[in-house]
Structures are given as structure tokens and as C-alpha cells.
Amino acid sequence: MKKLDDLSVLVPENEDIIGRGHPRRFDWRGAWNRSLRFRLLALGMMPLLMAFPLVMAALSILGGDRAEEMLLANLRGQLGASSTYLEQTRRQTGQQLGQLVRSERIRTLLSSNSDPKNVQRVLAEVADSNNLDYLLIIEENGRIVASNSGHFAGMVLPPDHVVEQAREGVVTSAFERFEPSVLELLGKNLQSQAIVSLPEGGNHSAERRGLAIHAAAHFPLAVDGPNAMLVGGILLNRNAPLIEHMRELVYPVGTLPDNTEGLVLLTVDDAIISLSRQRREGGRFTGGHLTVEPAMELAKGEKQWMGRTRFGDATYMMGIDAIRDIHEGEILGAVGVAFPYAPYERAIRLLLIAVGGVLAVTMLVVSVSYLAAGREITGRLQAIGQAMSRVRQGDRSARVAGGHRRDELEKLARHFNGLLDTIAKQDASQKVAQKTIADEASRRRALFEHERDGVVILNEDGSVFEANPSAARMLGYSTDELRGMHASAWDVKFSAAEIADNIRTTRNEGELLETVHRRKDGTTYAAEITTSKVRWGDRTFILTSQRDISERKAVEAELGRYRINLEQLVEQRTRELNDRTAQLDTIFALSPDGMVSFDRQGHVASVNQAFLHLTKLDSGKVQGLDEQAFEEVLRALCREPLSFSGFEGLRRGGGSGSEGPRPLLEMAGPGGRVLELRLKSSESAFVSQVLYIRDITHETEVDRMKSEFLTTAAHELRTPMASIYGFSELLLLRKFSDEKRQELLETIARQATRMSTIINELLDLARIEARQGQDFAMETVPLQDIVRLVADDYSPPTGRAQPVLSDCEVPVYVKADRGKLQQAILNVLSNAYKYSPDGGDVVIECQLQDDGRYVAITIRDQGMGMSQEQAQRVFERFYRADASGHIPGTGLGMSIVKEIIEIMGGKVSVNSEPAVGTAVTILLPVVAVAEA
Fold first, then answer.
1. Which of 158, 412, 699, 846 has its CA 20 to 30 A from that of 619?
2. How many C-alpha atoms does 514 have within 13 Å on its Cβ side?
3. What region does 421 belong to: left with phi over 0, alpha with psi -120 to 50, or beta?
């Protein structure tokens, strides 16, 4: 390529390419290489001379192919429309027969007493109204019962797939190809209607087979009707209405160019059996064969063919679609469409001529415009070349004159002038830059020489390019000795290969590493090195900054030892604190007594589960409360809120552990829980005080029961004791008659017996409670035997009958102490007689309950009975429902019964009604039930 300065050799605008007056052969190659103007001229004429013929040829080939593709696409749609219409006609025929077999008018024809002439007339009317060429009623064996033509009744119709499907109950329609003999059976005139003359050279033959839309449907089965089918269809041979309707759908009048007409045809094999009418010829072409191309495709079994073919005396675009037997897939014939090709061919030719003319004119205008633009371009380039030549000769003031345009060449001229201005400015600034660079180099050299850290610049092979005095002092060498020395000479930690690998992987942003350096005298020291890769000019160096870190390493080692000792101490102390915390948390969580801790600000810090269980409070409602709010929460729990003295009372009174009455909190609600409160102060940095809460409900209840028991027992014992003491004193002080003395002695004996009974029952009850059944001789005993023994051995009061015994239906065994169980039953039985002084039967019943798992012993009397409140207190010690004192007893019998039965795993219940009677039920678990 030529340099920019060589543009000055462009041929001047007034100089010819071939010298005038020198008739010689024109040098095309030389002119192309020498002249830009010639190249632009040649390129400007090239579209007209070369591109136009090529474009026209491409349009002729590609345009014709594209036009034919469009025609084929249009033909494909027309063929699809005709095939769809024919398929719809087939389905509609099947639907019509399916509706006819269900119509009452047709079904009445199956009656055995139907008039044959009437049957024929009805079938003919139905066939005409439904556009059917034949309509027959046949039996399942194919015998013709009746037809719309009225002949061949009794003949047998040959079987086909449609009839077979109808015999199975499926309404079927299909395209069928019938032989003349079958056509004669189907209809009176169908055989002659199907004949189509076919010219064969000079002779004439005929196509006698018929192509039909054939359908069949089975009549609904009836008790009094025959098993018959309805067969009907449309003959497609010479079917003018159908073929004309198809043509109107595919080629409506006026849709083809030049008022041409399209064709629709049907074939049997390659024989045309139906063809749409041609209005220009004034008739209908009804015979003939398909052309060779489509006929061969049908013979090969192809489903479809489309293309150009010679049909009659003209060229047509034709498409055919095969009609197949739906049962065996055999090609029966075809449906075809076609339209003349000549109008489209003329239109394509005219379109190509018009496009070619427009393209030629366009290319001519483009070429002329290109030539004019090229002439202007070469002239302006020549001016730029002349200015460049002057600059090359030393004229720095030379510039390109401006033009009237503002295009790229004008911009090039302005840029060229700007370039010359820039060069002039750079000449002036270059001297200033050189001085600045020299000053900067001196400054950096001073920094390099006086840097405190050692700076070593390595070559890529690891040798020293340059080192500052600090680096030389650290290593004990002079700067001249270090220059050229390899880094492995003083690095103890890394070998030469490792140093080379580090240099190769060093990044521009720098890396920090620690190593050990050896001085010239053999001593070593720990060093910290920062390495980074730099480029100066076309060379790459490794810049290293070195620092002696021996003292820092020693300090770090000492700090490391201190850190390890401190960590061990902290770990040990933390482990001890964790162990102590875990122990306290376990005690706090598992303690049966409630505890509440307060922080130094007096707010609730934590509560244990025992406190929440005792007070039925939620942790979220008390956590964080101050002392006053928490005090209100506790006061709300009291049965008598004013009785709770609060935290100040706990501090003043016994709540802090001092001697004195215990502060109690009696809770409201069922159960009446009684809590003892203790408040302990703490000097901890986190806990100010701890509230200790202990449940003493049981202790309080025991104390109350003990006091009541002692009061009641003393009262019960004092009564007989007072009688004994009083009557004894009378006997000592006064003399009585023998009868009176005897009476007093009997009273003393009776009261002594009563006192003995009370003492014995108290001892018995105390023994049972103390030993909790340990002295019971538990065994499996038959319940009925024990009940019967008690009833038989019991001596009722004078004038009263023995208890009435009602045994269980089957023997029942329970686990009990035989003697204690007898004692419990006897106590209940004795009470039943004592509390029914007016008489009445006492009944003992045994019944199984809860699916045989328990047995109930019920002792029922008809005595004075008790109220509901009296019945609830019947098991209290010394309680007696009779307040008059006329009925003897201690009031301990039912308490003893309850203790005995509960130790045996049972229950005792009382059901009583005043003035009606009382029923006491003893419920014991069943061990076994014997077979009845």
C-alpha cells in the first residue's frame, strides 16, 4: 500500500488516462492501479453492465419458482376445501341414517302388516327429502326387505364393511366402490346412471363401476319388531348437483384472473366419473382419464399430488387427493381441483418486465450519480495530497483549503489541518515534558536512596537489578555487591526454584510474605517482604520491599504466651462458672417449692416451674414486673386480699427468716391452696432478692383435721365418762334399793361398753390408716359367699326380718381381705337396720358394672334417709345423721368402711332421700367371673 504522502501522484483532473497523440493499446490493469478516478468510473458502470443482467436472471428464476410455490399453496387450500366438503357430506349421510332409524315414521315400516307399496312410497319420499339416491331396509343376513325403487325385494345384498359395522350397532358411513351387479340391487336406475363413457384412442369404452357415499344404521331392537338395518347412500358418478356445489365452494365466479374457470372432478381409479361444467364450452366433460403424472402417483398409493399438467388442450395447475376405503385402506378413486395456468404465467411475465425496467432506470441513475460523486472525491483528495507534499518538504504552514460541503472529505481536511496544529503544539510541549521527566526521575531516585525499608528490584530470573542502601545495610553488602546477585543467596526459607515460582505467580497488586534472610556475616533475621510486579518500558521487574521484623517477632511470641495462659485461665473459670450455673439452674428448675428472683432494679428476673404450678400464673405475665406490680398480682390470688401484707410486711415480719408467725397466703378458688412466703435479700451483682414459696396446704389441712378429731373424740368420750363418773359417785354417796342400784349399775356398764366401742373403733381406724393395708390378708375370694355369710350370720333387731339377698347372675371373684370385707359389709348392714326403726325390708344386691370390670354391692333400706348435705358428710369421723341421740352408734363406722374399701382398690358411694331410704354401694374391681 502507498503511504499517505503518495496521494500527490494522482492524475490531475485535466489529464487524460491515455496520452493524446499516442495511439497505443489501452492498458486496463495499469489504469486501474494508477487512477482512482478510473476505478470509480468502472465501479459506477458496473451495476448497469453486470449487476442488472444477474438480477434479472435471478428474478426470472427465483420469481418464477416463488410464484409457482404460491400457486401450489393456493391449490393446496382449494384441494383441502373440496376434500373437506366431500368428507362432511359422508358424515352428514351417516348422521341422516342414524336419525332415520330412530324416527317413528320409518320404524312403523318394520311392522309385519305394513303395505309394501306404502313402504316403497315412504322410502322414496324420505330418500328424496334427504338427497339419497338409494334407501333400503335389509335384514341382518343382507336380505332386502324393501327399497325406495321397489324392486329386488328378497334378494341378498353382498356384505361390506359399513353393513358389518351397522350389524354391531355402530352407525357408519364410508366411500364404497360398487360393481354393476351391486348397483342394480341398490337402486333401479343406479346401474345405468353410473355408466361413464371413456374414449380410448379411436374406440370408446365405459366405466361401469360406481363410487358412492355408503351408510348403514341398525334399527333399535324391539320385542315385536324384526332385527333390521337401514342402508342408504349417494352415487357420485355423474352427480351434477354435488360436483357443481363443490366448484362453487372452491372457485366462486370471478375469483380467477381473466374470467377463467376452475375444475372440480371425481375419479374411480384414473377414470373421471364426474366433472364440473365449463360455461365457456357450454357443456360438461363427463369422460376421460387423469393425466399421466397424477395417475401414476395414485397407482403408487400416494395420498396426494399437486403440480402443472396438460389437461385437455390447456395447461392447468392440478391437485388430487386420494379417496380410500376406511376399512382396508385401498384407494378407490380421487377428488381433484384444477385451474388454468396461462393467466398467471402472463401476469408473472409482465411483472418481471416491469420490475426489470424500473431496476434498469434506477441503476442508470445510481451509476451517473456515482460517477459525479467520484469526480468530486478525486479532486478533493488531490488537494489534500498536494498539501501533504508541501509539509513533507518542510512547509509546516501548509494547510488544505476549505470547501463548501460538510461531508467526510471536508472533515478529513479539517482533521488534517488540526493534526498539523497539534504537531506544532507538541513540539513546544515536548521540551517542557522532557524537563519534567528529568525532575521526576531525580525525585524518585532520592526517595529510593533514602527509603527506610530495604528496596530490591529483581529481574524476572531472580537476580538483583538494583537495591537501595537500606537493603544493602540489612544484608551486610554494598549496593554494587548486591547488583546481579540472585535472591537465593540471602533467602534461607525459599530455594531458587521456589523463588522463581513466586516471581512467576506475583500479581500486580502485590503480595505480603514472611521469610528468613542471611547476612553477609552468616547471621540471620526474620524479614517481612512485600512483592509486586511492575513494567518499565518493555521490561518486567519484581519490586520487593524488605523489613527486619526480629523485634516484632519476639514481642509477638511473648504476647502469644501471655494469650495462651490467659485463655487457659478464662476457660477454667468459665467452666467452673458454667458448672455452678448448671447446678443452680437444675435446683431452680426441679425444686418443688416456688422461687422468684428479682434483678438489682427490683424487677422480676426469673420464675421457676414450681411457682407457676402453685399460682397458676403465666410466665409472660409476671416476667419483668416491678415489686409493686408483682405484689398486686399475688394479692389478686388471695382469698382475702387485705390479709397479704406485701413485701414490706415480709421484710418486717417473718418473711425474711426471723422467728415469729409464718406469713401465709391463702389462695382463692377451689382447693384453697395455702402458701408460705419467705423473702431473702442478696448481695449479688445481678440478683437483689429471692422470694421463696412453699405449699403447706397439706400441713394446714392435717393440723385442722387433727384439732377437729381431738375435739370430737374428747367430746364423744366425755359423754359416757361423765355418765360413769356421775352414777358411780351416786352409788358411793347414797344408798339405793336393789332395783335402783341394779339400774344404775346397768347404766354404768352400758356407758362403759360404749366407751370401749369408741376406743376400739378409734384404734381400728388408726391402725388401718397407719399400716395402709399392710396387715390385710389379700386373697381372691368369691364375693357371693362373703355377702351370703354376712347376711345369714346377722341378727336383726327384734321384730325385723333377715336382709333380702339378690345374688349376681354369675359367681364373681374379687381380691380382698375376707375378714375386713365382712366387717365393712356388716357395718353398712347394721346402719341400714338402725336408721330404719320403723321397719321395712333391707335388700342386698350384687351387679356387674362397666362391662364386667367392677362388681357393685348395694345395701338399700327404707328408713329415714338423709339430705344431700348429710350424705356428703357421712364419711366424716364421729358424724351421725341422727341428731336426736336415740339411735346408738359412734359415728366411725362409715369412716372405717371407706378406709377398708379404698385399700382394696374400690369405692363407696351413698345415695339417700329423706323419708324414702338410703342406698350404700360398695364398688370393687373384679378379678375373675366364673362360668354360670
1. 699
2. 7
3. alpha
Helices 783-793 & 818-834, crossing angle to 10 degrees? 50
Asked whether 595 and 687 are in contact (CB, 8 A), the reply is no
What are the grid coordinates assigned to 391, written together? 509539509
Residue 803: half-sphere exposure toward Cβ, Cα within 13 Å: 31
The predicted structure's pLDDT at residue 633: 84
Rounded to the nearest 10 degrees, the angle between the axes of helix 408-450 and helix 342-392 is 50
Give the sheet arrangement for strand 314-324, strand by strand: 271-275, 263-268, 331-340, 314-324, 304-311
Q: Which residues contact 717 (CB under 8 A, 6 or more apart)?
A: 755, 758, 759
User: How many other C-beta atoms can be found within 10 angstroms of the C-beta atom of residue 770?
Assistant: 9
Percent of residues, the chain, with pLDDT higher than 90: 10
Measure the CA dihedral 914/918/923/929, to 10°: -140
* Element holding 894 (H helix, E strand): helix 893-903
Taking the C-alpha atoms of residue 697 and residue 470, their distance in angstroms, rounded to an integer, is 90
CA–CA separation, 447 and 425 (whole Å):
33
pLDDT value of residue 525:
86
- 20 pLDDT band, cuts 50/70/90, is very low
In tens, the pLDDT along 106-131 reads: 888 888 788 888 888 999 999 999 99
* Residues sharing a CB contact under 8 Å with residue 265, sequence separation 6 or more, in sequence order: 243, 272, 274, 275, 276, 335, 336, 337, 338
Whether the CB-CB separation of 829 and 841 falls below 8 Å is answered with: no
Cell of 90: 359422508
Radius of gyration of the chain (CA): 66
Could you tell me the maximum CA-CA distance found in the chain, to the nearest angstrom?
A: 204
pLDDT over threshold 50, residue 906? yes
Assign residue 301 a region (left: φ > 0; alpha: ψ between -120 and 50; beta: otherwise). left
Distance of CA 67 to the CA centre of its chain: 55
Instruction: Round to whole Å and give the CA distance between 306 and 318.
Output: 6
pLDDT at site 4: 35
Cβ 518 vs Cβ 435: under 8 Å: no
DSSP conformation letters of 708-740: HHHHHHHHHHHHHHHHHHHHHHHHHHS---HHH
Distances (CA, A) of 869 to 210, 262, 294, 800, 860: 113, 116, 116, 29, 19
Q: How many CB atoms lie within 10 A of CB 623?
A: 12
Residue keyed to cell 380410448? 200
- Average pLDDT for 909-917: 87
Per-residue cell: 846: 350384687
SS (H, E, C) 610-679: HHHHHHCCCHHHHCCCEHHHHHHHHHHHECCHHHCCHHHHHHHCHHHCCCCCCCEEEECCCCCCEEEEEE
Q: Which residue type, as a one-letter code, is found at position 348?
A: I
677 φ/ψ angles, rounded to the nearest 5 degrees: -110, 140
- Cell numbers 335389509: residue: 138
Say which residue the cell 458496473 belongs to.
Answer: 46
d(CA 7, CA 388): 8
896 close to 824: Cβ distance less than 8 angstroms: yes
Q: Cα separation of 190 and 333, whole Å?
A: 18
| Selection from 105, 140, 99 nearest residue 123 by Cα | 105
Crossing angle of helices 64-100 and 342-392, in 10° steps, is 140
Long-range CB contacts (< 8 A, 24+ apart) of 906-912? 906/854, 908/875, 910/866, 910/871, 910/874, 911/871, 912/865, 912/866, 912/867, 912/870, 912/871
Residue 50 DSSP one-character state: I
Whole-Å CA distances, 692 to 609, 637, 647: 13, 16, 12
Measured from the Cβ of residue 579, the count of other Cβ atoms closer than 10 Å reads 10
Residue positions counted in the chain? 932
